[in-house]
Design brief:
Blueprint: E1 5-14, E2 19-29, E3 35-46, H1 48-65, E4 70-75, H2 78-84, H3 95-106, E5 111-116, H4 123-155, E6 174-180, H5 185-188, H6 202-218, E7 223-226, H7 230-243, E8 247-249, H8 266-272, H9 274-282, H10 294-311, E9 316-321, H11 323-334, H12 339-343, E10 351-356, E11 362-369
Parallel strand pairs: 1-4, 4-5, 6-9, 7-8, 7-9
Antiparallel strand pairs: 1-2, 2-3, 6-10, 10-11
Helix pairs in contact: 1-3, 4-10, 6-7, 8-9, 10-11
């Protein structure tokens, strides 16, 4: 069996040392040409060195999940590289269990090398670590919102408000108005459009304006949140301007990473990877080549859903995103399996509405409305 070789680059940082800390790790193929996996996480108040070790551990774990046998680790942390190479002793009490954990992961590969690189050559992992630290504000705000909600519930129980249908859910729900972005050139050509960033077409801008006008007429909307991609942000900006509220970017709302299929049509992807494409269409655990599985999308969207319910309890929130994240939120609200992802059609700039209740209940009020366009 041919060994699979990968490159792991990892980094960590702390704003204050110790302070709000996070790590980033990226796994490349052996040619350093294709990203196979990314990991990042905010880890609370820690030191730089702890964050760097956590990044290494995450990178090695991702490489193991990919089935790698030979790993070249590249980091700009002299301390971690020298300690993992056995040239420096691990003396700090906080480092000892982390180094042991990393060594246990190393033992699972056939060969692992450690190389120090200058910081500028570790920019991908550094960016992920900074994104993780940027998440600190959101996480702390969510935790604060959850604590405030618990305090209010303790002194002033919420008035029960029945859910529609027969769900039995009570309380006032967080109502998510799920708006798909407007048209782009890739959507005109019906090509996989994931992490690429095509702008809205002229029709797409008109669609965004039509949706904004409809939302403004509804009123009573507390916030507009958006995927970080340009086509969603432009659609969100139109809605936010009409509503007089700012746009909040939530990275978890980004579209599926279609990897090597980005920019291809359905037929082109099927011809390129016939067996994999067929499996991908029926198994949500199968990722696109170099991309992301629908199971991975569901995991991050479930986190976004929890964050939105904590941040905006009982409020109406416009969520501007893409086909898969919106379908996944509807899937979570309905409590159904992955078949919904393959069978539900959502038009460009369409509106769907899902509600999530404080007791865990949920309901769907609307799907794929385009009457305002």
């Amino acid at each position: 069996m041919t060994e699979r070789e990968v490159i792991v680059e990892a980094d960590g940082g702390s704003r204050g040392n110790p302070g709000p800390a996070g790590y980033g790790a990226v796994v490349f193929d052996a040619d350093h040409a294709r990203v196979l996996a990314e990991r990042k996480e905010y880890i609370g108040t820690e030191t730089n060195n702890v964050a760097e070790y956590r990044g290494l551990i995450a990178g090695l774990a991702a490489a193991a999940e990919l089935g790698a046998r030979v790993v070249a680790v590249r980091m700009d942390s002299k301390l971690v590289v020298e300690q993992m190479s056995g040239r420096w002793k691990v003396k700090h009490p906080a480092m000892i269990p982390l180094a042991d954990r990393a060594r246990r992961l190393v033992a699972g590969f056939e060969r692992v090398s450690f190389t120090w690189i200058p910081r500028e050559q570790n920019s991908h992992a550094d960016r992920l670590a900074n994104e993780a630290m940027d998440d600190a504000t959101l996480i702390e705000e969510v935790l604060g919102a959850e604590l405030r909600a618990m305090e209010v519930e303790a002194v002033e129980p919420a008035v029960a408000e029945p859910a529609p249908g027969w769900t039995g859910a009570v309380g006032r729900p967080t109502r998510l108005l799920l708006l798909r972005h407007g048209q782009t050139e890739l959507s005109v050509q019906r090509r996989y459009s994931g992490r690429g960033n095509p702008p809205l077409t002229e029709l797409g801008r008109r669609q965004a304006a039509g949706a904004a006008k409809m939302l403004a007429a509804k009123g009573d909307i507390a916030a507009v949140v958006s995927s970080p991609l340009g086509r969603a942000r432009a659609t969100a900006e139109a809605a936010a301007t009409a509503l007089g509220v700012p746009v909040r970017i939530m990275d978890g709302l980004i579209e599926t990473d279609f990897g090597d299929w980005e920019g291809l049509t359905f037929l082109e992807a099927a011809e390129r990877d016939p067996e994999l494409h067929a499996r991908w269409l029926g198994d949500p655990s199968v990722p696109a080549p170099g991309g992301e599985s629908f199971d991975a999308v569901r995991e991050r969207i479930a986190t976004v859903r929890a964050d939105l319910v904590a941040l905006y309890p009982g409020a109406n929130v416009v969520v501007v995103s893409h086909v898969t994240p919106i379908k996944t939120l509807l899937q979570l609200a309905l409590g159904v399996g992955p078949s919904l992802l393959y069978r539900l059609h959502l038009d460009l700039a369409s509106l769907s509405i899902a509600e999530f209740y404080p007791d865990g209940g949920s309901s769907v009020r609307l799907v794929n409305d385009t009457s305002y366009l």
